[in-house]
Amino acid sequence: MSDVFPGWYAKPSGVVRDRPKRGYWVIGVRIVDPVRYFNLLEIAEETIDYLGGRIVIRSPAVTVLSGSLPPRLLVVEFPSLDRAREAVDEAALKIGEGLFDGVAEFDMAIAEGYHDFG
């Protein structure tokens, strides 16, 4: 691409390609019962920490520029894509499946990140 647009794209100098790419949970949230939802947030945050994840985005409001997204967005980073996948099952065991039933609705995807920067 840099041949087509000279100077437009410069490869970052700190890219480390010998480590696994990070894995991410990308979660859209629609809150059904705000009181119960906010009471359960501490349990969810402790579980993410226990699983080795790190919340990188927890947006109380999303500005949608095109298409449609749920009103809240959560992105959780894991050391690798494999760890992000494993953590889904472990989270269900740790906090109990159905804990958020009637509290919130979720759309969830697991995504592989780009190469690590240093």
UniProtKB/TrEMBL annotation:
Transmembrane segments: none
Record-linked Gene3D superfamilies: 3.30.70.100
One Pfam entry name: DUF1330
Name of the featured protein: DUF1330 domain-containing protein
InterPro entries in the record: Dimeric_a/b-barrel, DUF1330
Origin superkingdom: Bacteria
Domain DUF1330: 23-114
Signal sequence segment: none
